[in-house]
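[job 0417] fold request received: Acetylpolyamine amidohydrolase
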Amino acid sequence: MKTVFSPLHAGHAGNFELISGAIVPAFEKPSRAEFIKARVESEKLGPILPPETHDLATAKQVHTSDYIDFLPTVWPLWEESGRTGSALPFTWPTRGLRGDVRPQTIDALLGFYSFDGGASFVKGTWEAIKSSYDVALTAAALVKGGETSAFALCRPPGHHAGAAFMGGYCYINNAAVAAQWFRDHGARCVSILDVDYHHGNGTQEIFYSRGDVQVLNLHGDPMTEYPFFLGHADERGAGAGEGFNVNYPLPFGTAWDAWNASLDDACAKLAAYAPDVVVVSLGVDTFEKDPISKFKLKSADYPKIGRRIAKLGLPTLFVMEGGYAVEEIGINAVGVLTGFEDR
Ligand SMILES: NCCCCCC(=O)NO
Ligand SMILES: [Zn+2]
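[job 0417] inference complete; emitting structure tokens
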């Protein structure tokens, strides 16, 4: 399997996030991608290719243009306002406030275009976001070009980013962009299977009213787990998208057998939808030792995920999402990929 990777991710470093009542060093850090890359090499998964550069047209098909155009302006505006450190919002347009009027100051714009304090910017963040987007599109083109599968080693991740908002370490929704690209390049329909511990609220929001992209999500129950405000089982899609959004909320402590039962059901629904291509939002924060998550999957379980997805017999693009136990992130993420190849 070929991997696409960009060293430009490393510019998104040293940033902080607001979590659990404190401003702390972000859990989403450069070493995550480096550990995964090292494991790709040590497991001899296949060549590691640099991304081709793309324009933002595909990004603007799943995100609003004003949101995408805002992202490269954040750091310059933050610096112009005399600040250093991490550009972070502290006010958000929640219920009873106006989200239809775009404010002018960078502090307000950061809140206008986000849903939490988990998507901060430093000087190199935009270059990292753009490189992650280029990685996803380059890997998608490998699959379109005849590869059975490919691995988009994306950093920063994307599945929490909605049409006009960032959050949860996500800025451009790489999996959504790849799905749209497949649709623009001949795929009649696409399935996105999100196996990250957290619900891919952004991916759901982007495709919720569309029937050409099926979205299936296995995740911590939002009644008790981030992102809290989307991801319930009754969210089945709307209009043309009715029935094409499937959520599997699962309780704290979920281990392999229960998790796999949901995976099996999701794969059956995916097979019934019969997409031309599958995009897997590959998060491995379902791992028992993950510092911010509460499922109990073991390293030996990840190859089984890959084997189950391979049984679908469909071209498959793996897009890296979350996972924060950096010692094992490479073992677990690449385990899915070697399992897919039945090695
Ligand atoms: N800062 C709150 C938790 C962000 C979770 C990010 C993640 O792993 N999403 O899949
Ligand atoms: Zn996650």
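[job 0417] notes: The chain has eleven helices and ten strands. Strands lie at 2-4, 16-19, 22-25, 48-49, 149-152, 190-194, 213-220, 245-250, 277-282, 316-320.
[job 0417] exit 0
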